[in-house]
Amino acid sequence: MKTKKIIETMASAVCFAAMMSTTAYASGDVAGAVQSTWSTARSQVVSVVNNVVFPVIDVVLAVLLFVKIGLAYLDYRKHGQLEWTPIAIIFGCLIFTLTAPLYIWSIV
After folding, report:
1. Is 53 exposed, middle or buried (0-12, 13-18, 19+ CB in 10 A)?
2. Is the overall model pTM greater than 0.85, yes or no?
3. What angle do CA 40, 46, 51 make, to 5 degrees?
4. CB 86 within 8 A of CB 69
């Protein structure tokens, strides 16, 4: 009985391994397939990225910028020293993401 269970387990493992290791052969030009897929889906990708992804990133960066400005003001009142570097970095990233839809698709 124990030997039968071991044989069944080993046979199942071999069948599972054989099923997962089948080779898929690509017929034709892979680069051509990728280019045709991109040209077909390009308008949808551009629309989603311009109307969803960039605005979400912009909102997150804008909120982060206002929070950092508020914390910098509180830090200035407490210590009398203002740290501009993080504010400038977040502002630069915000400007980059606000203007990115204008030129990013000519690069890609």
Report:
1. middle
2. no
3. 140
4. no
